[in-house]
Automatic annotation (TrEMBL), chains A, B:
Family note: Belongs to the PRA-CH family.
GO biological process: L-histidine biosynthetic process
Residues where Mg(2+) binds: 95, 97, 99
Name assigned to this protein: Phosphoribosyl-AMP cyclohydrolase
GO terms under cellular component: cytoplasm
Keywords, comma-separated and alphabetical: Amino-acid biosynthesis, Cytoplasm, Histidine biosynthesis, Hydrolase, Magnesium, Metal-binding, Zinc
Domain Phosphoribosyl-AMP cyclohydrolase: 48-120
Catalytic activity: 1-(5-phospho-beta-D-ribosyl)-ATP + H2O = 1-(5-phospho-beta-D-ribosyl)-5'-AMP + diphosphate + H(+); 1-(5-phospho-beta-D-ribosyl)-5'-AMP + H2O = 1-(5-phospho-beta-D-ribosyl)-5-[(5-phospho-beta-D-ribosylamino)methylideneamino]imidazole-4-carboxamide
Gene: hisI
Source species: Streptomyces albiflavescens
Native organism taxonomy: Bacteria, Bacillati, Actinomycetota, Actinomycetes, Kitasatosporales
Length: 140, 140
């Protein structure tokens, strides 16, 4: 044992301070990431889905602010650092397969970069109503 | 124009009846899938995350039952076909990037194969409290 914080290296080669016990259980996609669902803790709104690697999860657990890995920019991304629309972390859970993260947050302002409260507000698809017993799906 | 339902072939080569306008907008991962969040429509509980290809989304929109692509089994999977724990579809939305689906459902029984109501009930991670202004994350 030393007093130096341990770091480990997940599959993508980025060093991480994530608890090794959690890191050992986490099931990542081929690019070393897991999907992370952000949910408003009191209203239950699903705000957005981002991606986390080990270090992003570690920062989310230890800094109080939801942190993602930006696939497009290839860097860590503290939600709100640019916009001020921080996500203050209330709780974090893994799912039963340890391949998805659910973060309950208190969202400041809009979660979506469009200015909408959530990223799912604008693009509602049409569901065929009353079709449950009528439609035969294509063969597999 | 013909009276035959059109099908298209998404990147993974599986034929799909998905509306071509939606298919043209959908941004899939390299394996042709998008993450799909299932949320209980009235309580707001996040139940689980599954994966959909074009045809799974098409079936979800047109059959009234939430349908996923099983990555482990390599086949379509109507949630509840084995367990009876169907997800009756209430609404479907794409996010602002068209790379994630949110399905609001009425979940019959347990969403999780463990018997838990949701897949996020059992594995709560410890969040470091009061750390928001104190912790310096690792350098990028």
């Amino acid at each position: 044992m030393t007093s130096t914080p341990s770091t480990s290296t997940p599959p993508q080669g980025r060093p991480s301070g994530l608890d090794p016990e959690i890191a050992a259980r986490l099931k990542r996609s081929a690019d070393g990431l897991v999907p992370a669902i952000a949910q408003q803790y009191d209203t239950g709104e699903v705000l957005m889905l981002g991606w986390m690697d080990d270090e992003a999860l570690h920062r989310t657990l230890t800094t109080g602010r939801c942190t993602y890995w930006s696939r497009s920019r290839g860097e860590y991304w503290v939600k709100g650092d640019t916009s001020g629309h921080f996500q203050h972390v209330k709780s974090v859970a893994l799912d039963c397969d340890a391949d998805t993260v659910l973060v309950k947050v208190d969202q400041v302002g809009a979660a979506c970069h469009t200015g909408a409260r959530t990223c799912f507000d604008a693009d509602i698809l049409t569901v065929l109503e009353g079709a449950e017993s009528d439609v035969q799906p294509l063969d597999q």
